[in-house]
Amino acid sequence: MNVLMLHGINHNMFGKRDPLQYGTITLAEIDARLGELAATLGVQIESFQSNYEGAMCERIHQAFLEGTDAVLINAGAWTHYSYGIRDALAILTVPVVEIHMSNIHAREAFRHHSVFAEVVRGQISGFGVDSYLLGLRTAVTAARGEQA
Questions:
Q1: Is 22 assigned a catalytic role?
Q2: Nearest to 55 by CA among 95, 82, 90
Q3: DSSP code at position 105
Q4: Number of structural domains, the chain?
Q5: Is residue 148 part of a domain?
Q6: How far apart (Å, rounded) are the C-alpha atoms in residues 125 and 135?
Q7: For a Cys staple, 95 with which of 4, 86, 136, 142, CB 3.0–4.6 Å?
Q8: Are 132 and 5 in contact (CB under 8 A)?
């Protein structure tokens, strides 16, 4: 089973950016934790990060063409306004889990709405790096056709 982790805009700055919201964990450390869990679950995981919306859409298209089994996405601020990424995600026929390190519903009002909500399996937010780990477990369970 192949899972794709999509990291959005500004995530390359984790560890340096707003430690009160995101802690001090780096993107490389998040990916390492995901890789460890993926090995335990018996799946492969690939991570992709971009600060360019078009590149993110193209990677989603590639996932569709490759037959990726599940997708995790933390699109950052794009979550709240990128209809382009939303429409790319809607092409996928596999489980897609939206994740956020911070609780977006306890932050600024503009962060309370996800334009992805109608096309993803669900959303996990507010648990820091554990949001990613919970998301991976959920996506794998859904892709295997098991009850979550």
A1: yes
A2: 82
A3: G
A4: 1
A5: no
A6: 9
A7: 142
A8: yes
Check if 112 is active-site.
Answer: no
Rg of the chain on CA atoms, in Å: 14
Return averaged pLDDT per consecutive 10 residues of the chain, 148 residues in all. 97 81 86 98 98 98 98 96 97 97 79 90 95 98 83
Domain that holds residue 112: 2-143
Which of 22, 61, 80, 83 is labelled catalytic? 22
Considering the domain boundaries, does residue 123 fall inside one?
yes
The per-residue pLDDT for 148 is 53
Q: What is residue 35's predicted lDDT score, i.e. its pLDDT?
A: 98
- Rounded to whole angstroms, the Cα distance separating 126 from 92 reads 25
State how far the Cα of 127 lies from the Cα of 103, in Å rounded to an integer: 7
